[in-house]
TrEMBL record:
Originating organism: Thermoleptolyngbya sichuanensis A183
Highest taxon of source: Bacteria
Sequence ranges assigned to domain EAL in this UniProt record: 1-256
Range covered out of full length: 934 to 1189 of 1199
Protein name: EAL domain-containing protein
Lineage: Bacteria, Bacillati, Cyanobacteriota, Cyanophyceae, Oculatellales
Length: 256
């Protein structure tokens, strides 16, 4: 109950912050963008991670307000970096969405506003959805995603392989890339079945003409195997953990 009440105040009290995990080109290691990851600076309990509050926020119907805050903030952040760091002009910022966001009728409008207010090019925005979000009303989800994709926004399926794989209509989904879940990547060396899953997802994305992104890359061996399988982009502690916006800006200044 305390958590619920605290959460209800958190947006107005400006207690949320976004951290930014670099996404890199696996072949060149060039920085190609960032995934935004929300954190909650709780007034008395310290920094909270999504696992501590996203489920509660969903239960009390607050997640869409939080995600829209993250959307606006991430768009503004990348747009402002683009003004300072020329190498950011082609980068993308990823924003995670929840199932409730797709049911909110004002989503497309809010996306348009976030882009207009920040001045960010739609092609620099990447929205991350999960397979499970597409199960309930697939036709409605497809129509919504088509509207989003028509703007040039990149849509990625996050945690791919862990959910209900809607292979029957995956080819109809207006998505741009599959982001293989980190649980498969982390076991790629230890467990041959995981290697096969990661290989199958790479082949699937190739056949569907989608990009393949790997997350949770921690070792050189994982990187080499993923490269060999055709993964173009990735994230993980081998490259960088999620950074504060100040640390991300310092990285950009240093890479410039
Ligand atoms: O931050 P961490 O790296 O612990 O992220 C854990 C999970 O929280 C990720 O799977 C991510 O998809 C989710 N998450 C992170 N930021 C957001 C956000 O702004 N909105 C939603 N809905 N989920 C998020
Ligand atoms: O849910 P999503 O997969 O979008 O969120 C990514 C989560 O994974 C975040 O909690 C992030 O901090 C974490 N993460 C990112 N890179 C790595 C990694 O290389 N190893 C591990 N164990 N966790 C990671
Ligand atoms: Mn994600
Ligand atoms: Na994930």
């Amino acid at each position: 109950l305390h958590l619920e009440n605290d959460l209800r105040q958190a947006i107005a009290a400006e207690e949320f912050v976004l951290h930014y995990q670099p996404t890199v080109d696996l072949n060149t290691r060039a920085l190609v963008g960032f995934e935004s990851l929300i954190r909650w600076q709780h007034p008395t309990q310290g920094l909270k991670f999504p696992a501590d509050f996203i489920t509660t926020a969903e239960e009390i119907g607050l997640i869409t307000a939080i995600d829209l805050w993250a959307l606006q903030t991430a768009c503004q952040q990348l747009a402002s970096w683009q003004q300072v760091f020329p190498q950011c002009s082609q980068m993308k910022v990823g924003v995670n969405l929840s199932a409730q966001d797709l049911k909110y009728g004002g989503l497309v409008n809010e996306i348009d506003q976030a882009l207009a207010q920040s001045g960010l090019n739609p092609t620099c925005l990447m929205l991350e959805i999960t397979e499970s979000m597409l199960v309930e009303d697939a036709e409605a989800a497809i129509r919504l995603l088509e509207q989003i994709k028509a703007r040039g926004i990149h849509i990625s399926i996050d945690d791919f392989g862990t959910g209900y794989s809607s292979l029957s209509y995956l080819h109809r989904l207006p998505v741009d890339s599959l982001k293989v879940d980190r649980s498969f990547v982390s076991q790629i060396e230890a467990d041959p079945r995981n290697y096969q899953i990661v290989e199958t997802i790479a082949a699937l994305s190739q056949q569907l003409g989608l990009g393949a992104i790997a997350e949770g890359i921690e070792t050189h061996t994982q990187l080499q195997r993923l490269q060999r399988l055709g993964y173009q982009l990735g994230q993980g502690y081998l490259f960088s953990r999620a950074l504060t916006s100040e640390a991300a800006a310092a990285l950009l200044a240093q890479e410039g």
